[in-house]
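Researcher: Here's a chain I'd like modeled. Treat it as a single chain, no partners, no ligands.
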Amino acid sequence: MVELTGDDDVVAACEDDPLLVWAAQGMRAGVRAWALGEAVAVASPDLNRRDRLTVRGDAREVTRLVRLVLPELGPSYRLLGDRPLVEELAGRMGEVEPPKTFEWMDTDRPPPVSADREGAVVAAGWLRGADGEVGTLLAQASPSSWAVPGLPWIRRWAGLRESGGQLVATAADAWSCPRMGFVAGVATAAAARGRGYGQAVCRFVFAALAAEHGRVALMVDTDNRAAIGVYGRLGMKVRPVAAAVVSR
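Model: Modeled as a single isolated chain. Structure tokens:
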């Protein structure tokens, strides 16, 4: 087992895998990474509100690597990776609870030019001094949002207002890192849905983060087919992933 100490080392070891590149967070303080053969594991504290051990590689090698590094980590860490791998690891290591499944989506291209009614929508943009409004919108429209104003690693919020000035859609630049922009906290007011507002905000944020970081990603619940459809139309590709707590 070799500990990887630099961001470039992680990128090389994982073959520039977007999920692990994001997990490495530019190797910010507290992040650690290891390789064993072709297996790679990245331990990221407080990443998207969880302590995560993100893995890739052959299940047997990953199992060996995880068993070696888990004693160095606290009990709060949970596995994250491609769904078949995490499900196999959970079976091999003894799951504490069933794996949670969801979708990772990413792209390395800006969204395609809009050819629909978004042209008539008031332009989305970065917000200033609007944390209270964003918090109110999220509480009403997306109370289970993983991103809320005031959390660490949330850099900024984007939003869209109707002509009267009311904030009706929002999304956050959250847990981004030098090589990967990340989007969370996407929400649209219930009364304003179906008008393209959410898609307009996402189009703006995806384009901004893709230009700044080269790639942009997010996570979405598997059963949120409407959101997955919107993100797919904006150029993102689906990657089924899972998270699991395993015995030590």
